[in-house]
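Follow-up to my earlier ticket, as requested here are the two runs.
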Amino acid sequence: MVGTERFTAAVAVYGVLRRDGRVLLLRRAGSGFHDGELALPAGHVDEGESALAAIVRELAEEVAVEVRPQDCVLALTGHSGPERPGDQTYVDLYFTVDRWKGEPRIGEPDKASELVWTLVGDLPDDTVGFMAEAIAAIADGSGGPTLKLWNWSDGG
């Protein structure tokens, strides 16, 4: 038997806040992950934390809004291979959020420099590629649950 240790993947959650045909993006800065690009509010699921608790926490931290778990709807699942050598493999969970309390603002100025509401069908060119693909797949809405595969050399 080769290798007795099980493979593990990190879990990331993404918040797709939607309003009037637009989606909220933030410009990453100082985080070491796609700095300078526009991205969805997102983060890691911590040990002992559910994915719903994680997205509620991340939205409070990153864009300073209060969201109820029941207002977060799982819309897309992704499985990401490493972007660069040494990166982790991820299971990505994308939640649409159409209701929240508070006006979004930068909650972590050391990790983001700008918030942008952009039309879902006209995302800026500097949106993180796999997130733009996820937003488009969610907006398409055709069919049931969707799984997207990114960065896999075997074609997924």
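Run two:
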Amino acid sequence: MNATVLAALNGSERQLIAETGPKALALLDEDEVAALHTRIQRARNKYVGLYRRGASARVVDRGARGEARPKNRTAALKVEAFEDALSRVSRRLAALSRESASALRTERIEAARAAKAGTSKSAAPKSKSNRKASATATPRGDRALRSPAREKNRAGTTAMGARRQAKRDSR
């Protein structure tokens, strides 16, 4: 990062940017990187808003967006710094997510193979009553009350009713 961008940042912002270095990111697990990603995103969004509001307020005085831009240099530099930091954190988060998804997939495949072979990890098979007690109270997957398929069906039904009503009203 160049000296101009670093000079635009205050102490806490410099510390936040320093947390996105390769050595610092290597020490964090997936949840910590996700939390850092959120913090960087919020900081970037803050300065994007300040930059846009400042530029739009100066347009009236200057008469053009191009004329108003140079006065807003500090906010633009901060946005640039946080954008770079966000890209580093996003790449690290994506890599950690791929690793954990791969590990989870491997674990599930092994469990399925063990169950198919009849050598499940649990010693005693669960009875039917035990399975009901451990089941979740809310439906999941396609049976969920707010699944995408149900939302699409609901929207189609609403649209069909609106078309029928429009046809009746036009008579």
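The only thing I checked on run two: DSSP finds eight helices and no strands in the chain. Let me know what else you need.
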